[in-house]
User: Fold this.
Amino acid sequence: MLEIRWHGRGGQGAVTSVELLALSAIGEGRFAQGFPSFGPERRGAPVAAFNRVDDKQIKIRSGIYNPDVVVVLDESLIAMVDVAEGLKRTGTLIVNTTRNLEELRANITFEGRIAVCDATGIAWKELGVPITNTTMLGAVVRMSAAVKLESLDIPIKERFGRLAIKNQTAAKRAWDEVRIINEG
Amino acid sequence: MGKRIGMEVAVAASEAAALCRFDMAAVYPITPQSHIAEHLSDIVNDGRVDASFMTVESEHSALSAVIGASAAGARVITATSSQGLMYMNEIMPIASGMRLPIVMLVANRAVSSPINIWNDHSDIMPMRDTGWVTFFSDNGQEAVDMVIQAYKVAERRDVMLPVNVMMDGFQLTHMVEPLIMPDQEEVDRFLPPLVPYATLHPDKPVSMGTLGMPDIFTESQKSKDVALINSISVIREVWKEWEELFGRKYEPVQTYLTEDADVALVTMGSMGETAEVAVDELRKEGIKAGLIKIKLWRPFPFEDLKNAVKGIRVLAVTDRAVSFGGPGGPVCSEIRSALYDEPSRPVIVNYIIGLGGRDVQVADFMTMVKKAAAGKLSEPYEYYGVRG
Assistant:
């Protein structure tokens, strides 16, 4: 079972990301959960959202404390949230950033695999807004193999309608451009 | 035979109500039920059911409004949670006393104070004696199925009682997960149109909910009690029919690996599945653990429970609400009472768990079983994992 934790700020679409990823896995005939960090949310405040993906029925309904993958939608969070908390040593940290490893090391001590993607840059270019949730889905799918890239197509289409193609393009670009900066 | 989809459970439960072609909804939003309120409103606004959606200023009014509509012969729905359910409390026995087949979805949440929006069962437990049939769902599929089953049970002439369907707030309501959404055609076959027993209509005046003098009040209360007790056979019948049509089995008490179990956990609601994983893990360690899941809280399934506990040495009952100053959690005191007259019965221990969103993990259930198996707890009940 693959467990993913997403970090974002209220309004950046972390909950939409987990929903789209869960729907993509379910669309493949597999099993998934997508859920927010339960509770009140405020626009701009740090939030988390979660996914479980498996080939068999998922029965566990408790929280996720030791994820296989952590995704950071907003790099300003790394200075205020311990984004790698509980992340498995064999897991992957994926950050939306243009910073290099040395710069990230000021805030991130995680010794495992770290990947980065300029999702904000891609989102500005492809969507015209700095909303990175669908873009980062491409990076997450590439790094985690949670689902096939094309499995994102139908959930994105159903969610975004005529804007779907732009979101699909952004996700595909992130899939191409995400790169590992620390093998771990 | 339905379609496998991924959907947020609150939305899926609302979709299930739409498949039942409700005529009228009156809902006041409250976290974590809000997505149900929003989605029912969308369904009506989009014309997907021929229904009216009444916006009300409170839960007291929401339930009062569906009582009125139900008395006029409409198939109705409402939904609430926590303080909202507490505010409905005054109206709940009126719905059952008037024998109205209302269906209500409850997104279970703690009650104040302190203010807490997270999941436990302290909202529904005080409603125990209001005369409603009460289902507890474990997962999204059960929430969807139980909404449809609820109408069938409620509207049976030999029941005619309101039914509420529990789904744990957030843990279920806010979870996107796979489930099979039945087809409209299947639901139409299962659930015939409502033919009301009596309706409020100006052309044929009747009185409902009138004064009951001392010479009739006791009889009215017994009549409601008998109807609720007898509804269990209808519930069994409806669940049997459901299994035949949809292939998913429902029982008032569902057991998991209890046949040879030495120690069994008892759960209600969404933690049952996590407890199942704990049972699997305990079995790997050589501990003969089992699990009993209660799906029907009212009418309480006494016979099913007695059968389920046969041969079990220790029963670890979990409660997600407190009966302050009482004999233990409400589920546990019910079970103790149910087994009191049995010639042999398990040792019963009681854990209060998962209050106000406190997470309970697989390892926690394993600890509870091991501790229970080792001997009776020192207290009549234990607040598992409490500080101080």
Remarks:
- The CA atoms of residues 33 and 157 of chain B lie 30 Å apart.
- Chain B has two domains: 3-246, 253-383.
- The interface with chain A takes residues 4-6, 8, 31-32, 117-119, 170-171, 174-178, 270-271, 273-274, 276-277, 357, 359-362 of chain B (CB under 8 Å).
